[in-house]
Amino acid sequence: MQNFSIMQKKSAQITEVGKQMDSPKVEAIVFDAYGTLFDLESFARDAEKVHRGKGKEIARIVRQKQLEFAMTRTILGKYADFETLTRNAIEFALKETGIKRTDPVVENLFSKFQSLKPFKDVVGALNDLDELDLRVAVLSNGTQSMLDKLIEHAGLSLLSEEVISVEGAKAYKPSHKAYQQGQSELEIFEKEKVLYVSGNTWDVAGAKSFGFLAGWINRTKQPLFDEGFYEFRPNYEFSSLGEIAKLFE
Amino acid sequence: MQNFSIMQKKSAQITEVGKQMDSPKVEAIVFDAYGTLFDLESFARDAEKVHRGKGKEIARIVRQKQLEFAMTRTILGKYADFETLTRNAIEFALKETGIKRTDPVVENLFSKFQSLKPFKDVVGALNDLDELDLRVAVLSNGTQSMLDKLIEHAGLSLLSEEVISVEGAKAYKPSHKAYQQGQSELEIFEKEKVLYVSGNTWDVAGAKSFGFLAGWINRTKQPLFDEGFYEFRPNYEFSSLGEIAKLFE
User: Fold this and answer.
1) Alpha-carbon separation of residue A127 from A47, A138, A149, A156, B160 (angstroms)
2) Given CB atoms, is B152 within the 8 Å cutoff of chain A?
3) Fold of B2-37+119-246
4) Fold for domain A40-113?
């Protein structure tokens, strides 16, 4: 149990907004997409409309399998694009929930995954960051095509300039190769000049391990950073994306 | 959708027992532990006894988080042992299911994870393989201490000689390093002389990718090998561990 108490102590090192006065010197705020800007609960609700009583379970399985497929392939060095993995995950979820797999059923769920809704705090946060003249980008495991459609559908025009897919790296986050792809496309020489924000703890851990400043968006108020990644704690913890701009005021 | 049809065709290459007459020339049958020899449903039932109405959810979350932590750490090259990750996963599951975390509550669930029950087909299958004079081993992400306790508790003395943990590799399956650790400890020069059997599709994919002969134990009769790993299909698919010995009769 020694581990636990060491880690409890470390939790004090996470800066909560309002408790630190020095603004970080960053050149760009980079957001993860799925689970950070875009709400996977909206996929569950959309899936529920066509598959009554099974929407939540479908969404949970799709997300879990996307992650399992992406991580396994990254470990094996055998990349397949995120559109393929997402369709694979949908097919698996259909099987698990006892829904007959047909092309239209798969396509319907895939199109719903392409029209995820942004979290409520996204539009305001992007406007605030824009007013502060901060450079804003997206770095996601999704394909370029998936990301462009997602952002267009949500009308997030402030993001449309710098949308980076890990496709070029042929490795998924949390691999350093994926964050390297982001850094290269951003053309930012110093890693710590990037504030990378994600709602996924394995992604926060990866970005921190790579060398970015890392922010964890923890909307559901989990009391501690995910116990499995103690030594990769984020530099910042936010309860709403709106808090990011406050760091720079 | 081209991918899908290619992969559908490939499924015909999986040998089902009874359809092939030539016995594979193997020196050892190597089993995964969690989800292959040992039934994680028994953890759900044991957890249910102390946390009414939450046992299944606790077991699901623990398994998912163990996997997420292990894969993330393997990708980042930051190993922590499986006992630590399991405790971390239990703590996360307690939080998610709204159970107050105390040391005794964590210890109680951890001890239940150490006393998983073997699947019903395990004892008979091990006896059959022993009669055929086949060498049998275990290769698991668990620590040596966890595995020794698990096997002792289940009384699987036929397995007690060759129980291999990935600890020495400091990387988890499906990393090639983990299977390499198994191959080295077994001292088997040719990879294809090992028949590796797992119920976890990411593990089957990893073993196949490494070069072992791979068997998938698919007790719940999923109709196809897990869609996310088409190009790592197993050489054999078993509906019961009892079918393995039949390959060698």
Assistant:
1) 30, 15, 20, 10, 63
2) no
3) Rossmann fold (3.40.50)
4) DNA polymerase; domain 1 (1.10.150)
